[in-house]
Backbone:
């Protein structure tokens, strides 16, 4: 008979936190990821995110690429993976990983993406809609990384996520259902475009909305 594959609960039960933040999470002193953001603490263990956001989904952004490097004994090949994780409810993370095989490279990328997870602000900033729900962006944002630049604009309900394949995966994992985007530069470089998209989404956290500062 085949052995039962360990479940998420089994793995978390076996987790022995190595950081004070990890111990606080496992003790129950911190019960939500938002508390970590408010205290401006760094997440150094991916299990913290597994504990607080159980419904994360993973998306590999393109097939892992083989990378070669010269060593004293000849050329050595490894694989490089790019991954995004999100709960489709305002939380999104991006990470990369390298290993001698494809699967371990993806697993490392997933762990790094969880450590880099952030909360993005959603809303309805389209004058054509103004429904007040969190289906799009509250305002226009843009960012550049390397040779890739992306601009994201609010869209009315029913538009869908109008974006290239890489950016669309990131945006949908973050929980956006209606959005317009425009990409410029070397958009075929998946990592640059994904990082530019993440930087643009991070811009949503830098501006306070009126309802958040007590102004109607």
Residues:
């Amino acid at each position: 008979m085949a052995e039962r594959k360990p479940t998420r609960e089994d793995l978390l039960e076996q987790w022995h936190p190595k950081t004070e933040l990890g111990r606080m999470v496992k003790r129950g002193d911190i019960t939500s990821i938002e508390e970590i953001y408010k205290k401006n603490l760094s997440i150094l263990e991916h299990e913290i995110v597994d504990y607080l956001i159980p419904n994360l989904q993973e998306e590999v952004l393109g097939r892992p690429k083989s990378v070669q490097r010269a060593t004293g004994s000849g050329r050595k090949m490894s694989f490089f993976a790019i991954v995004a994780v999100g709960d489709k409810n305002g939380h999104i993370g991006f990470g990369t990983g390298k290993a001698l095989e494809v699967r371990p490279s993806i697993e490392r990328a997933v762990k790094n993406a969880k450590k880099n997870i952030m909360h993005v602000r959603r809303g309805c900033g389209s004058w054509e809609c103004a429904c007040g729900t969190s289906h799009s962006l509250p305002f226009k944002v843009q960012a550049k990384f390397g040779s890739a630049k992306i601009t994201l604009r609010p869209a009315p309900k029913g538009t869908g996520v109008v974006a290239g394949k890489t950016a669309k995966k990131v945006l949908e994992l973050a929980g956006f259902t209606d959005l317009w985007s425009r990409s410029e530069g070397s958009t075929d470089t998946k990592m640059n475009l994904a990082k530019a998209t993440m930087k643009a989404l991070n811009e949503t956290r830098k501006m306070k909305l009126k309802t958040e500062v007590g102004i109607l």
Notes: Residues 4 and 10 are 11 Å apart (CA to CA). The beta strands are 57-60, 65-71, 74-86, 91-99, 118-119, 141-145, 148-154, 161-162, 179-185.
